[in-house]
Amino acid sequence: MSKKLSALLAAAVFCAAMGTSAVSDAHIALEKIGLGGLTPNSTVEDMKKLYGEPDQTVTIQKGDLIYRSYTYGKHVSIMANGVNGTERTSSIIVKQNESNDRWTTPAGIGIGMKRVAMEQVYGQPDSTFQGNDLSGITFCVYRTEHSDYDMTFGIKDDTIISMAFHTDANGTIK
After folding, report:
1. What 8-state DSSP symbol labels residue 115?
2. Bridge partner residues of 128 (DSSP)
3. Taking the model in full, what pTM does it have?
4. What angle do CA 73, 108, 32 make, to 5 degrees?
5. Tens of pLDDT along 92-134?
6. Which residues lie closer than 8 Å to 96 by C-beta, 6 or more apart?
7. Are 108 and 128 in contact (CB under 8 A)?
8. 17 in helix, strand or coil?
């Protein structure tokens, strides 16, 4: 996984775990969580039907629980976990490239769009934080009423340059 992708994932996980400054009371509807036709309830088979076989797969098993990371090119990373073939997508990270027009949210927000379009659809983020490097990226986090799900948008120069969704460790709503 590239350093920038790893940094995005680490920052999003940290934000989800710790909360950040600029917190609001807004929440988005669960049906607005998703990217590129995949949702937190999508199966690995759903993913492969849409995008084919991944370029790389990494598997980690802890007891009965299986964690898999699927990579498509240099710009898309999909994590899934589950038990005995019941894997569901638990996070997707998409970063800017020349061909992510199909990677949009269910509401049609995608990379390359302006921050104002994101805020028109989702409102003000629940929280924001700065990337831990000097990239100038601000991450905007939207949570559902089930705080274990979130959508995170990376913004630079008022433009969306990355998007991600995350679930809890089991990929389930508590």
Report:
1. H
2. 140
3. 0.76
4. 95
5. 888 866 555 678 899 999 989 999 999 999 999 999 999 777 6
6. 75, 111, 112, 161, 162
7. no
8. helix
* SS3 category, 49: helix
Distances (CA, A) of 69 to 37, 42, 113, 138, 170: 18, 14, 27, 25, 14
Tokens 């000097």 belong to 134
**106 has which bridge partners?**
none
The tokens 């299986």 sit on which residue? Answer: 66
CB count, 10 Å around CB of 86?
A: 12
Any idea which residue has 């598997």 for tokens? 59
Going by C-alpha positions, the residue among 17, 1, 56, 2 that lies closest to residue 166 is: 17
The pLDDT, as a whole number, for residue 99 is 57
Tell me the CA distances in angstroms from 103 to 34, 59, 110, 112, 147, one per residue in order.
Answer: 9, 24, 6, 11, 23
Cβ contact 89:77 at 8 Å: no
